[in-house]
Amino acid sequence: MGARGDPEHVLIVDDDPALRAVAEIALGELGGLRVSVAGDEAEARARAAECNPDLVVMDLVLDEVDGRDVWRILAARTPPPEAVIFLTAAGGVEREALRAEPHCVGVLTKPFDPLTLADVVRALWRSRS
Q1: Cβ atoms of residues 44 and 70 within 8 Å
Q2: Engineering a disulfide at 60: which of 53, 81, 88, 115 sits with its beta carbon 3.0 to 4.6 angstroms away?
Q3: CATH of the domain at 112
Q4: pLDDT, tens digit, for every residue of 52-91?
C-alpha cells in the first residue's frame, strides 16, 4: 500500500481508448498514482502479470465480454488484486448487482469527472474492509 493508504498500482481496463487515456491522466498525472492500462481481456491479463495491481478499475462491458468475468480471472491469479471498482453506464439493479461482486469497493457511472476521479478512487479504496 502506498502513502496515505493509496493503492500501489492501479490497472484500468476499458475498451474505449479515449476513456482509458482520460482515466490514465486523471489517476496518474493528476492523481499521482501508478497506473497501467488495458483494452481487452488478453491485455488485462498481460498487464496484471507485469504490474501486480492491487486495484483494478474495470469497465462492465469489454467488446462483448463481461467485465465481471475478466475481473474473476484477474482475481484468481497470484497475487490477486485486492479490490475492483467497476465502470458502467447502467443504473439501478445492475449497479447493485455489481456491488455484490467479491472485492468490489464501488461502482462509478460513466462518464465520470476526470478532475475528481483520483479522489473518488482513493475514497473507495480506503473504504474496503
Answers
A1: yes
A2: 88
A3: 3.40.50.2300
A4: 999 999 999 998 899 999 999 999 999 999 999 999 988 7
**Structural domain includes residue 29:** yes
Residue with cell 473507495: 124
Provide the residue range defining the domain that includes 114.
3-124
CA gap 7, 38 in Å, rounded: 18
Q: Give the list of residues 6+ apart from residue 17 with CB closer than 8 angstroms, or none.
A: 39
User: Is the model's pTM score more than 0.85?
Assistant: yes
Using a 10 angstrom Cβ sphere, with 0-12 exposed, 13-18 middle and 19 or more buried, the burial of residue 52 is middle
Q: Single out the residue of 93, 89, 70 nearest to residue 81, CA to CA.
A: 70
In the chain, the number of structural domains is 1
Is residue 21 a part of any domain in this protein? yes
